[in-house]
Amino acid sequence: MAARRTVLRSAARPPSPEAPSWTNVLAGLSEGILLVDAAGRVRDMNPAAESLTGVAASQAAGRRIEDLFGGEPMHAWLTELVTTTLSEGLARRRSEGALRTRGATIPVSAACAPTYDDDGQKAGVVLVLHDLGLERTLDETARRADRLAALGTVAQGLAHEIRNPLGGIKGAAQLLRAGLTDPEQIRCTDIIVREVERLDGLVEQLRGLGTPPRLQVGPVNIHRILNDVLALQRQAPEWGDIVLRTEFDPSLPAVAGDAAQLTQVFLNLVKNAVESMRGRGQLLVSTRIEARFHVRRRSGRQQYLSVLVTDDGPGVPERDREQLFSPFFSTKTRGTGLGLAVCHRIASEHGGTIAYEPRAGGGAAFRVTLPVSEDHDHPGA
Description:
Blueprint: E1 6-7, H1 22-27, E2 32-37, E3 42-45, H2 47-53, H3 57-60, H4 65-68, H5 76-88, E4 92-101, E5 104-117, E6 122-131, H6 133-178, H7 183-210, E7 218-220, H8 222-233, E8 243-247, E9 255-257, H9 259-277, E10 282-297, E11 300-311, H10 339-349, E12 353-356, E13 364-371
Parallel strand pairs: 8-10
Antiparallel strand pairs: 1-5, 2-3, 2-6, 4-5, 5-6, 7-9, 10-11, 11-13, 12-13
Helix pairs in contact: 6-7, 6-10, 8-9, 9-10
């Protein structure tokens, strides 16, 4: 007897010869699609599902759904969703759950619906997984940006009140120095002037939190920015014997951004990485398109690319990670704690994200995610 085929029924007219095949349609979706037969075994999956599960379609075919997810208790909800849909024949949905893949846990939503063959007999189910990771990060970035904006308003008022007395202190110290002959007293006045100038620079950064410059947005070649930043940092005395590796995807489109402000973000991240390694270790800068991540906008789906800056330094202690992008928090002895806060503001204003990613082997990794420009005539390489 010939095997029954599983079909997707539609009331629409048959597709024209120019219409894309279902395989191509599924391959282009950002949601993970898994086809499971009536015995609970995986028949096929699209590239997004491969990326989410960390398993190739060729390796997944024929495996039971519980084996595909490693039999971990964390994934019991997915197995239950599939088996319940198979037994009841009714579509089911779960708004959120956890999926562990490649050592990372990501939030996903899942929907499961039965499929039928040509004779109307139940042939299995289709499981749809949607990665909620970027949406959650964007939401958190927006909330943090709101808190920074409120703090920036206060900081701007303080900056105005602080700069006036600082100018008076500096002027008085310079006048005092002009009349001194004792080397020790001259050294002390020089310290006063230098520290006043440092405070003045800090106040200027505070003003930046409150009134950020207006973005000059256009298609930006992200690799050109990264190459310029790396060329500049390699001339710094702190570079020492650091080994640089770059893994750039030459096919990346341009990002929609302000070149000057994005340069400030990556200059800060690379400089921090170089300082943390103290002249020894490996610095890796890589770029990629975020194939799994599409955020729905009114005009369609917004695609993103990401830049990862990884170093072999000591990393960030777990107790400090929640405060990394907070103003005035710094793990450096003489750090102002405003560098990463400003980076966060810039990423947020671009509609992107910046996040710290712990590394299993030690060191630190910062990922910046930015929206792709709608003008694809400007490549990113």
